[in-house]
Amino acid sequence: MRNINYTPLYRSSIGFDQLTALLDSTTATESVSSGFPPYDIEHLDRDQFKITMAVAGFNEDDLHIEVEKNILIIKGRKDKEVAKEYLYHGIALRNFERRFELAEYIKVTDATLTDGLLEIHLLKKIPEEMKPKSIPINGIETGNLLGDEIDKAA
To answer: All domains of the chain, ordered by start, with CATH?
Structure first.
């Protein structure tokens, strides 16, 4: 296992203490991950994302989706089927659990299952108080001050 020194990140960042835990968990789980089921992550719009997961053979009752502490957990549990004699067995119906770290303010809006594809829609909704804003200096907005001076000079 690799140990990475994150000290240089702390020199210019404040409040990212959990970043190292996230990076460590990502490298640890990626080596253990089986790659099943396959999935895509799409960036639909500025604030919209979609995860599409191929879950052939699973129905709504076999799938469970939950969000816990900014972690999206998708579980697929298939009841044991009656033993069958296959000539070729290529459809994987094994149980799975997929986890996705969600950034702050990312919310799951809905999920659909169509034609063996599970689609999970995500929305980034930043509260108004967290959006960028101009900070006035001495009670005067710098953007307006410069604009007023330019108008007076003309």
So the answer is: 1-33 (no CATH), 35-127 (2.60.40.790)
